[in-house]
């Protein structure tokens, strides 16, 4: 099995697991924060989509043709503040 096949298989397993977790949930359930950071299932789906669409595309030389609406542009004057908020949220207890 090639590394590409392994990566595709792992990504598909994660997609399948997310679909399984989301199956049958209401819109309110998907949006309800379940941890102190405020993360919800919709946020996790957005994170995974952004990872595949943006990061992996850039990494493998296939950049996304457009930026996802929830990911700030590097030209945004608040970009550094956004990154700082993420770091603070990640270290909050």
TrEMBL record:
This is DUF664 domain-containing protein. The lineage of its organism: Bacteria, Bacillati, Actinomycetota, Actinomycetes, Streptosporangiales. SUPFAM superfamilies: DinB/YfiT-like putative metalloenzymes.
């Amino acid at each position: 099995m090639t590394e590409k096949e392994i990566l595709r298989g792992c990504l598909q397993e994660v997609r399948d697991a997310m679909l399984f977790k989301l199956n049958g949930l209401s819109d309110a359930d998907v949006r309800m924060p379940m941890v102190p950071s405020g993360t919800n299932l919709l946020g996790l789906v957005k994170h995974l989509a952004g990872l595949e669409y943006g990061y992996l595309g850039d990494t493998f030389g296939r950049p996304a043709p457009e930026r996802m609406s929830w990911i700030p542009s590097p030209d945004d004057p608040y970009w550094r503040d956004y990154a700082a908020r993420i770091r603070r949220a990640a270290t909050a207890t």
